[in-house]
Specification:
The complex is a heterodimer of chains A (101) and B (183). Chain A is mainly α. Chain A has a domain at 28-91. Helix content of chain A is 76%, strand content 0%. Among the domains of chain B are: 10-88, NADH-ubiquinone/plastoquinone oxidoreductase chain 6, subunit NuoJ (Four Helix Bundle (Hemerythrin (Met), subunit A)), CATH 1.20.120.1200; 150-183. Chain B has helices at residues 8-30, 34-54, 58-83, 97-118, 138-147, 151-182. Chain B has 6 helices and no strands. The chains are: A mainly alpha (101), B mainly alpha (183). At the A-B interface, α1, α2 and α3 of A face α1, α2, α3, α4 and α5 of B.
């Protein structure tokens, strides 16, 4: 018998929690970004688990699209980080507060 | 319990992959240097790719390694290189203790809810809308679905990638122009 799907879901949930905690607590914007990738991967794992559990190809197609969107998001996000760093010489989230009001 | 029914090799692969994912994820959060975080990210992505293979998603596992561990992490490493490798954030985590505790409580609440959902039945009884996964080879089934049912979203992702590339170029280009005006 194969591993039960719920085990994968638990692993994915833990990975998502780890990523969420990283986004909320780390100060470096790049590490926050990487934690975001962790969360996206956890969701991908959930999609693949449910695709297997429901025997539905839709879950895997969704992961395909999530991968593409994640690639685009990383390109633009890192571009913004580099642009911010050029102007203010910081990659710490606490220092980037111009929009705080 | 159910443990006896699971084949031992699969269990070993699962446990090892989960260990890799766990060590990578915790290492990413705990690492002082950003470069180490990026390398731990590669480790996690490989672990998730192994889990993908164990779940029968061979194509996605390959794409995961090529696109994520290959392209995206290299992009991260390039940006880290641009911003200075030896830069260490003295307090890696936010200074506000309350914020860390609140983040932990919030994440725990989400986890409890997710565990509650995950420990339920194998499926919700939903009926497949986009075709059966076991109709053939993984790559073939996926390709047929992407190029027939989901062909318009697929074309849109192409447009999205072009927009992202143009956006990244514009982001760096306009800044150079402004700096010249400042002088």
């Amino acid at each position: 018998m194969t591993i039960p799907g719920s085990w994968y879901l638990v692993v994915a949930a833990l990975l998502f929690g780890l990523g969420a905690f990283g986004v909320l607590t780390r100060r470096n914007v790049i590490v926050m970004f990487m934690s975001l990738e962790l969360m996206l991967n956890a969701v991908n794992l959930t999609f693949v688990s449910y695709a297997r559990m429901l025997n539905d190809v839709g879950g895997q197609v969704d992961v395909f699209f999530v991968l593409v969107v994640a690639a685009a998001e990383v390109v633009v996000g890192l571009g913004i980080i580099v642009a911010i760093f050029r102007q203010r010489a910081t990659v710490t989230a606490d220092d980037i507060s111009s929009l705080k009001g | 319990m159910m443990l006896a029914a699971i084949s031992i090799p699969q269990l070993i692969v699962f446990v090892v992959a989960v260990a890799i994912v766990g060590v990578g994820g915790v290492g990413l959060l705990a690492a002082k240097h950003t470069v180490h975080s990026a390398l731990f990210l590669v480790m996690t992505l490989f672990g998730v790719a192994v889990l993908f293979i164990e779940e029968g998603a061979e194509f996605l596992a390959a794409v995961q390694v090529i696109v994520y561990a290959g392209a995206i992490v290299v992009l991260f490493l390039f940006v880290i290189m641009l911003l200075g490798v030896d830069r260490v954030e003295v307090p890696a985590f936010v200074a506000d203790r309350n914020r860390i505790v609140l983040a932990g409580v919030g994440v725990l609440a989400v986890l409890v809810e997710l565990f509650y959902v995950a420990s339920g039945a194998w499926s919700s009884g939903a009926v497949s809308q986009s075709g059966s996964l076991s109709a053939g080879q993984n790559v073939g089934v996926l390709a047929r679905s992407v190029f027939t049912t989901y062909v318009y979203p697929f074309e849109l992702t192409g447009a999205l990638l072009v927009i992202a590339v143009v956006g990244a170029v514009v982001l760096s280009k306009r800044l150079i122009g402004r700096r010249e005006v400042d002088r």
